[in-house]
Structure formats: C-alpha cells, structure tokens
Design brief:
The protein has 4 helices and 5 strands, in the order ββββααβαα. By secondary structure, the protein is an alpha+beta fold.
C-alpha cells in the first residue's frame, strides 16, 4: 500500500500560568497554528493576540513555516490562558529544533527568547 510512509516528527510540550494549562503538539507540516481548533488570527481577546504572536516574531518565520501547532488550553482566565499558550509555543519550537534540526539553531532561538522575556 504505502511503501513510502512518511515519518512525522512530533513534539508535545506544555505551558502553565496560574490555573491555565496549555498543551502544544508540534509536528512537521505547512505552518498551521490552531488554538482549541481556531486559527491563531481569530483568537480572542484581540488585545492579547499580539502576546500570542511574540514567539513567532522573535524566532522568525524560518523557524515556524514548516511546523504545524495544535494547542489545547484549559483553566484560568483569558490572560492566563494567553500567557500559558505563549510559553508552551516557545518551548515547543525550542524542543523541536533541538531534537530534529540542530543545536546552533536551537540555541539562537532560545537566546532570542531569553533576551526578550525570561518566562518564554
């Protein structure tokens, strides 16, 4: 049947803030990011959407364009959920690059996150 079975590189990480817990599944794909089944561009509240996009902007498009992210978040309020998602997203990118890409790329992304905000 499928002689050329593709191996899917997959990482699962989590982020926590107060009572909010976000779980991110990161795998090779086409650059899709969904939060509880909703595209990242439609996540509410709109004012905190910029905070969700910080890990994307800091690491650059090159780190994200071939990765799919499925994010599940529960508990806490809107702000806590956004900060939990943000932390989990950053951890997923660093873990993916460490395991499947290379160490210098991972270290460059991690240094960019740490220089901006230590909670990432």
């Amino acid at each position: 049947m499928a002689d050329e079975a593709k191996t899917v590189n997959k990482i699962q990480t989590y982020g926590k803030k107060k009572h909010a817990i976000a779980v991110v599944t990161c795998q090779t794909g086409r650059g899709m990011i969904r939060v509880n089944g909703i595209p990242l561009a439609n996540v509410m509240p709109e004012g905190l959407r910029i905070k969700l996009q910080e890990p994307l902007m800091l690491a650059g498009k090159k780190a994200f364009n071939k990765l799919d992210f499925r994010i599940r978040v529960r508990g806490g309020g809107h702000t806590s959920q956004v900060f939990a998602i943000r932390q989990a997203l950053a951890k997923a990118v660093v873990s993916y690059h460490q395991k499947f890409v290379d160490e210098p790329t991972k270290q460059a992304i991690k240094d960019a996150y740490m220089a901006h905000d230590r909670t990432l």
